[in-house]
Design goal:
This protein is of the alpha+beta class. The protein contains 15 helices and 18 strands. β12 and β13 form a beta hairpin. Bound molecules: pyridoxal-5'-phosphate.
């Protein structure tokens, strides 16, 4: 039998459960026996797997048995030096990789439209970030990846940077030319850290974009739970570097993750790896056929447009529809929910569906979903969509005060118009394009202020900026 067709950790748990063990250990639910009320029905089965570091079940932080075997199989599948199971999402992987690769005051190059866990990692590591503006896709009305030209220029300006931190693909599944970017960074001995939260399945091969692990990234973090059949929070960190110390990654994971990691989550990671291992050409053909069928159904609805990836360079599991009618993206999403169709996210224009990674013969209620979507979106009056204001921003930018200084400064709220030349104390992210317009620690220039006011006037949506709707911005008191 192929070694990959085993699931050592899940197997060890089942072996344990089959002994009908009597628990005098944590957790307090004692394999689900101590429970009351409604939850019992749902939890009964899974709580048998929710155990602790018992004999035969290994220890995530010092693995030498079933967990080590499961992680080794994972590393073999992804062809990397070492893979780690994560029980606190890509969030903890991103924190650990940045902390392991960077030291205080290091200059690091960071794709600006990154997840907040990367921004938090920069703060914890007390580094000096240089932000790289991503390209904007006008058809999708969203930010994609960074260009090779931006990365090359950033490396020319900051040749001593200690890391390049990228996000690949973006939330909508758009990929970019990661290979040449990684090569360029490596030419300058700069390690590349990739948040590939949405790409754990990319190693299946075309038409999926290549994974960062195949393209030479030093560390790649993946939310297995986002696209593989793994439990929420279950994620992977793949280490494949001559430039970063593996023991440092291990040490940070130990510090940042629970000392009581969830066995159901870890076992689901073992099973997700097993699922991926057996994914063959017939499965892929079946999946792509189902994707085609679903997209074709959506394409018959006049109120929406199904977006295509530029140059077909994107994740086939991600299907994005864009409004052509009077409803904006958020309203479209709400409308779908009235029919019991729950999607991954909405922005002012788009709604994102994440398709299941089906294998041959697996049923998914696509026909029913298509019928319901058509029923709820039919007869919506079409409306000409307005063009966005294009945000003109610097391709490469730095903070004006560093994280250490920020932590000592007081903050106060000012009317937006009075905030000119102040240092922003909050991160303001307009959607679209989902790229921070202002980051905590950046100077509020007249251009930024004008863009902010024009976005507010056009009814744009924001993340961050708790007082923005009242026309106020939080700034640092610097004098
Ligand atoms: C690009 C990106 N990175 C990291 C994360 C965090 O992942 P997790 O939920 O696995 O902690 C997310 C979550 O949505 C994400 O979209």
């Amino acid at each position: 039998m192929d070694i990959q067709s085993k699931f050592p950790l899940y197997g060890a748990l089942i072996e344990h459960v089959n002994k009908k063990p009597i628990s005098f250990h944590v957790p307090g639910h004692k394999s689900g026996q101590i429970q009351q009320g409604d939850g019992r029905h749902f939890f009964e089965q899974i709580l048998w797997l929710d155990v602790t570091e018992l004999t035969g079940l290994d220890d995530l932080h010092a693995p030498e048995g079933a967990i080590l075997k499961a992680e080794t199989l994972l590393a073999e599948l992804y062809k990397v030096q070492k893979s780690f199971f994560l029980v606190n999402g890509s969030t903890v992987g991103n924190l650990a990789m940045v902390l392991a690769a960077c030291s205080e005051d290091d200059t690091v190059l960071v794709q600006r439209n990154c997840h907040k866990s990367i921004l938090n990692a920069l703060i914890l590591a007390k580094v000096r970030p240089v932000f790289l503006e991503p390209e904007y896709d006008p058809a999708w009305k969203t930010a994609a990846g960074v260009s090779f030209a931006t990365v090359r220029e950033a490396i020319r300006l900051y040749p001593n940077a200690k890391a390049l931190i990228l996000t690949h693909p973006n939330y909508y599944g758009m990929a970019f030319d990661l290979e040449t970017i990684i090569q360029e960074a490596h030419l300058h001995q700069i390690p590349v850290l990739v948040d590939e939260a949405h790409g754990a399945h990319f190693i299946i091969g075309q038409p999926f974009p290549a994974s960062a692990v195949e393209l030479g990234a030093d560390i790649t973090v993946q939310s297995a739970h986002k696209t593989l059949p793994a439990m929420t929070m279950g994620s992977f960190l793949h280490f494949n570097s001559e430039l970063i110390n593996e023991n440092k990654v291990k040490a940070y994971l130990e510090m940042l993750q629970s000392s009581s990691p969830s066995y159901p989550i870890m076992a689901s990671l073992d099973l997700a790896r097993y699922y991926l291992t057996g994914y063959n050409k017939t499965d892929l053909a079946y999946l792509l056929e189902k994707v085609r069928y679903f997209k074709e159904t959506l394409e018959t609805i006049p109120a929406i447009k199904v977006l295509e990836f530029p140059n077909q360079f994107g994740d086939s599991l991600k299907i994005t529809i864009q409004t052509r009618c009077e409803l904006n993206g958020f309203e479209l999403q709400k409308r779908l929910e009235t029919e019991g169709i729950y999607t991954e996210l909405a922005d002012p224009y788009n709604v994102l569906f994440i398709f299941p990674l089906l294998k041959e013969g697996q049923h998914y209620p696509l026909k029913e979903a298509g019928f319901k979507i058509k029923r709820t979106l039919r007869d919506l009056p079409l409306m000409k969509q307005k063009k966005d204001d294009k945000l003109e921003t610097n391709k490469i930018s730095e903070l004006v005060i560093n994280f250490k200084e920020m932590s000592c400064l007081e903050e106060h709220a000012l009317h937006i118009k009075e905030a000119l030349n102040c240092v922003c104390a909050e991160t303001i992210i307009p959607y679209p394009p989902g790229v921070p317009l202002l980051l905590r620690g950046e100077r509020i220039t007249s251009e930024k202020l004008e863009q902010l006011m024009s976005l507010l006037a056009s009814g744009a949506k924001f993340q961050g900026g708790c007082l923005i709707k009242q026309g106020m911005l939080k700034v640092f008191r610097t004098t």
